[in-house]
Amino acid sequence: MQNIMVTGGAGFIGCNFVRLLLEKYADYKITVYDKLTYAGRLENLQDVAAQYPDRYTFVQGDICDATQVEQTVKDYTIDTIVNFAAESHVDRSIMNPDAFIKTDVYGTYVLLETARKFGNLRYHQISTDEVYGHIHGEERSLETDAMAPRSPYAASKASADHLVNAYYITFGLPITITRGANNIGPFQYPEKVIPLFVTNALNDQKLPVYGDGQQMRDYQYVMDHCEGIDLVLHKGVIGEVYNIGTGKEMTNLAMVEILLDEIGKPRSLIQHVEDRLGHDRRYCMDVRKIIALGWEPDYTCEEAIRATARWYVANRAWWEPILSGEFKEYYQKMYGNRKVLA
Ligand code: NAD
Ligand code: DAU
């Protein structure tokens, strides 16, 4: 493994993963292949481009474009593909699922076909705990559980997982899959709940909590997730799936309170609004398999929330220009006419 193509590497998790690989493996060359949608930002990789001019290359392209994907694999003698590229926001998938089916399903198929065509390249798929659907009571999702996705986003990611597994079984493609819990940390686009709430709070705007705020999520620090992916990429058993998360969930209201306290803003900013359609109540995974492989998280959910809040406080120059662009229109559509609950 030496020439790695990281698709979606200009997005939130991808850019953190690229940084980790370049720092850790002095002999690796990384080609980021990214369409640069609203969520993909070259400035996320500015420091990387400056620091590793000989080992980092950026190619702008769509994973649905088989010709360009194949050309890139040829040009950079790629031996490994790690696929982060996706439409990733649940609310947008409810508003318009089209791009999710194209990128998350068809795009994954194009990458798998390319990997097969070039002599069965090593392939790793970044998946999500959302493929399990929402989990009741005290249960935790195991890698062997049946998938039961409930949003268009989750269904598109589950479809991709099925395809990846099919390429392993049918063609012997050397694949692994990781399913991550909610990531938070540097460079997350402010449509996702934690950066949205921190940036709103810093601007003294209300925080739109969906429904009763009792939904539960496992908020993990993005670098913990990236280290888990790295471990599976190098030491995971081919054909296997690994869950990655802290294994400990908390309610959204508890998350908001930690966040407001960290940045010294009042609880009166919390505003309960009309719920997300089909909102999954709780995700929580059993993470014993990745721990047995040698991984452990450095951050608890609370530490991850606090560290993330501090990053946004210190990096206004990164997020302020985003708020005035495409995001403004999106925010108005998503929240402008949303019913406020009593
Ligand atoms: P993101 O939205 O921040 O980044 C996605 C990246 O993919 C962007 O750079 C975008 O330009 C690129 N992209 C989109 N469509 C493309 C296409 N057709 N061709 C090439 N590039 C394209 O997403 P993220 O939060 O960094 O998530 C990355 C991956 O991790 C996704 O597969 C997501 O499903 C998965 N995941 C995310 C989380 C999370 O909490 N954010 C948790 C578990 C798994
Ligand atoms: O669980 C992994 C998934 O986590 C990833 O696969 C997705 O790519 C990622 O977007 C994330 O999905 P969620 O839907 O859990 O994340 P989001 O940040 O959108 O919402 C987290 C919780 O906060 C969820 O219960 C909905 C709630 N929420 C969200 C927003 C945007 C609010 O209450 N208000 C909001 O404005």
Helix/strand structural class:
alpha/beta
Q: How is the largest sheet built, in terms of strand order?
A: 3-2-1-4-5-6-11
Order of helices and strands: EHEHEHEHHEHEEHEEEHEEHEHHHH
Mean pLDDT: 98
Instruction: Report the sheet with the most strands, covering strand number, pairing sense and barrel closure.
Output: 7 strands, parallel
Number of strands: 13
Q: Tell me the strand percentage band.
A: 15-25%
Binned, the helix content reads 40-55%
CATH architecture field of the domain at 3-184 and 220-244:
3-Layer(aba) Sandwich
Which molecules are bound besides the chains?
Answer: nicotinamide-adenine-dinucleotide, 2'deoxy-thymidine-5'-diphospho-alpha-D-glucose
Total helix count? 13
> Distance between termini?
56 Å
The CATH topology of the domain at 3-184 and 220-244 turns out to be Rossmann fold
| Radius of gyration using CA atoms only | 19 Å
Unreliable stretches = none
Given this structure, which CATH class of the domain at 3-184 and 220-244 is correct? Alpha Beta
Question: What does this protein look like?
Answer:
It is a single chain. The chain is α/β, with parallel strands linked by helices and 342 residues long. Helices cover 44% and strands 15% of the residues. The strands form four sheets. The chain has a seven-stranded parallel beta sheet with strand order 3-2-1-4-5-6-11, sandwiched between helices. It has a two-stranded parallel sheet with strand order 7-10. α9 crosses α11. The protein is globular and about 60 Å long. It starts with a strand and ends in a 7-residue tail after the last helix. The mean pLDDT is 98.
